[in-house]
Amino acid sequence: MKDLTEEQLKELLHKNTPLMKRVFSGKHSASWRHLHYKAKGAKKRALTYKVPVGPFKDEQHQTIVSYLMEIYCSNNKRYLDYVLKVLVSEMLIAIYMDVHHISDPKKAEELMDIYSG
Known about the structure:
By secondary structure, this protein is an all-alpha fold. It contains six helices and no strands. It has one domain. The protein has helices at 6-25, 32-39, 41-46, 58-72, 80-100, 105-116. The model has no long low-confidence stretch (mean pLDDT 92).
């Protein structure tokens, strides 16, 4: 991931934008983060601590956050909390899956956790 150029990262962001829109609208059934966010209470609060950092550089994280904010928060910061608690994590996992050719999001997240630990 650290060898991923900014141009490659932007291509992956664009590629995964339709997936993020499905997550945002609740049409992506594999997104437990979306369900926890909508459940509110303790499950929603716990999302603050469940962002998979993985092998991404800080600059890559910032690029991802900025990209998602541009889409979901450009006119209004109403969805900022959702972007930070749900979509950033979902995008990190989607990009990791693409780069490493992994089809299972749970497996990708487990591997990312190894890098974070």
